Amino acid sequence: MRRRQDVPNPPDWLIAVRGSARYAPDSERPYLATVAGTGFGAAEGGLRYLTLDASEVVSTTARSANAYGGPQLALSVPLARGRAISYGKRPRTTVYIGASGGGLLGDRDPFSASLDLGMLYGLSPDESVSLFWASLGSGFRRD
Known about the structure:
The chain is mainly β. It has one domain (4-140): Porin. It is 0% helix and 63% strand. The chain contains no helices and 7 strands. A 7-stranded antiparallel β-sheet has the order 1-2-3-4-5-6-7, with no helix packed on it. β3 (47-59) and β4 (65-81) form a beta hairpin. It starts with 13 loop residues before the first strand and ends with a strand.
């Protein structure tokens, strides 16, 4: 018979805020850039954490459609570990390595659409985790 703390108990809610910046040091090569970000999250059960991430991005510079991609590193540091969420384990500091990429259609047109994809593999002192994401976006601009 399993004890209650051995049963996975993921949070019912999680709120996260993230900010990022892009730096392209060479105006002769606008297709190369460094992207860095930081964030804070809070989850039901007492988990509070900080995140840091950085990636190197290579992109195309076409007029109406562009693609980008590159390697990514991230770090998640719990400020308060909260209750156990996975078989009696609480979140620990985790280092992630992976890649992200995507594309933008209609960059200079009134209508644009984007697709972002990514995968990170995380390692903490006692286990590993894989994260995958996909995001679609669109916009309409009036000049």
